[in-house]
Design brief:
The complex is a heterodimer. Chain A is mainly β. Chain A has strands spanning about 5, 10-15, 20-25, 30-35, 45-50, 55-60, 60-65, 70-75, 85-90, 100, 105-110. Chain A is globular. In chain B, about 0% of the residues lie in helices and about 55% in strands. In chain B, a hairpin with a 2-residue loop joins strand 7 and strand 8 (about 75-80). In chain B, strands 2, 4, 5, 6, 9, 10 and 11 form a 7-stranded mixed sheet that branches. In chain B, strands 1-3-8-7 form a 4-stranded antiparallel sheet, with no helix packed on it. By secondary structure, chain B is mainly β. Classes of the chains: A mainly beta, B mainly beta. The interface of A and B includes residues 30, 99, 101 and 104 of A.
């Protein structure tokens, strides 16, 4: 079945440093979504990418979808303590309603 | 209103008990989902309802029984669970849930289930 891996599993940064998480799928995706889950919370939608090579920005967050539509990345510039949480990519293939979540990257930010 | 509500927030049950988890949304969404999430793991899809019909069952054991009484409500009936079923159970909804490009899923806060 479809597998979606993320690296790193965990990253600890000082506030103000940059952070990147990478997402790799075993199959070509029709789209990829990113979710953030705060400790003790539930996943919250961040963004969706659909086109090959697409880049989208949300303030300090930059999302990229690979040319082959099998990988994606999320980059956070100048992290803040409010960025703490686990970031999941989630992809879908033919059946649009079925999302397969990546393994997640847990981000810890300290002052 | 972009809220999905779930009750109860916490549930402790024995292996012989029968209980139900409830989920509600008033966004007019026609697709609703149940996910199971173990600690430090990603959510795993269990069931998808699209237009009140079960469209995806990810080979979930029969001790979990979903029900969609109407377009706003989703239940998960639990019976004879095992301790390994202890997890966070998340409900989500999306606008259409059938065909087209993937849709944003709105998650509820979850029910933390402990099976003793």
């Amino acid at each position: 079945g479809q597998q979606v891996m993320q690296i790193p599993q965990y990253q600890h940064v000082q506030e103000g440093e940059d952070f990147t998480t990478y997402c790799n799928s075993s199959t070509t995706l029709s789209n990829i979504q990113w979710y953030k889950q705060r400790p003790g919370g539930h996943p919250v939608f961040l963004i969706q990418l659909v086109k090959s090579g697409e880049v989208k920005k949300q303030k300090r967050l930059t999302f990229q979808f690979g040319e082959a539509k099998k990988n994606s990345s999320l980059h956070i510039t100048a992290t803040q303590t409010t960025d703490v949480g686990t970031y999941f990519c989630a992809g879908s293939t033919g059946t649009a309603s079925k999302l397969t979540f990546g393994t997640g990257t847990r981000l810890q930010v300290t002052l | 209103d972009t809220e999905v509500t779930q009750t109860p927030k916490h549930l402790v049950m024995g292996m012989t008990n029968k209980k139900s988890l409830k989920c509600e949304q008033h966004m007019g969404h026609r697709a609703m989902y149940w996910y199971k999430q173990k600690a430090k793991k990603p959510p795993e899809l269990m069931f998808v309802y699209s237009y009140e019909k079960l469209s995806i069952n990810e080979s979930v054991p029969s001790r979990f029984s979903p029900e969609c009484p109407n377009s706003s409500l989703l239940n998960l009936h639990l019976h004879a669970l095992q301790p390994e079923d202890s997890a966070l159970y998340l409900c989500a909804s999306s606008r259409r849930g059938a065909g087209g490009i993937g849709e944003t899923q709105y998650f509820g806060p979850g029910t933390r289930l402990l099976v003793l």
